[in-house]
């Protein structure tokens, strides 16, 4: 995991840095329009904005799932905006973890094999000691042999979180990671995410529609019409809601 640097040293470089990122989708929709934003190591950022404001597009461009039309995206020290396949996939597999709303676990594999799968796909030797620690940290010790279908939604998302962290990625992106969970279970998953940021220095960037979920972040970045529309630091859910009301007016 990323170790936070001594405060006397220069501030740590952002693990992901977008500069003037514009994305025009096929059909001419300008989903992002000159967005510049950085995500520092050991930080938890929520990305919010009205429907269609460009949140998913931002996440996809920052994670190397999509290429911007123009601008730079530096991920773990490499400009990925112009990188072609299969190099882009290699960078993504080495440095990025994902947590999705729908968990995206492989039902034919056990919990343990799901957690190790991304490292195996990346051709890395799985770090089993770290994977065991992750299973414990997410509260699933003893359930390693279970299939995802035998687990509750909250447990499945905890497996997905362990899977995202198993390769010690520079950054983890979450697309509505609590969107399919009930309130209490969602809160448990967010508390876990928060602990991974605070205790092991993980870097987490999450798109959400939920002000209560965003309030777990250190920083909330707002988008409107594909442009940055301000940010709030360690806000309450009420402050996030108030800002969203302003943006949707
Ligand atoms: N693959 C695509 N092809 C064409 N247009 C797209 C594509 N993906 C997104 N768009 C358009 O780009 C704009 C931004 O979409 P995006 O999904 O990034 O917004 P969002 O803020 O994540 O929305 P939501 O909150 O509804 O998920 C929208 O107008 C959308 O219709």
UniProtKB/TrEMBL annotation:
Keywords: ATP-binding, Nucleotide-binding, Transport. PROSITE patterns: ABC_TRANSPORTER_1 (PS00211), ABC_TRANSPORTER_2 (PS50893). The keyword Magnesium does not apply. The keyword Lipid biosynthesis does not apply. Residues 16-248 form the ABC transporter domain. It comes from the Bacteria. One of its GO terms (cellular component) is membrane protein complex. PANTHER family: ABC TRANSPORTER RELATED, IMPORT ATP-BINDING PROTEIN. This is Putative ABC transporter ATP-binding protein. It comes from Amycolatopsis vancoresmycina DSM 44592.
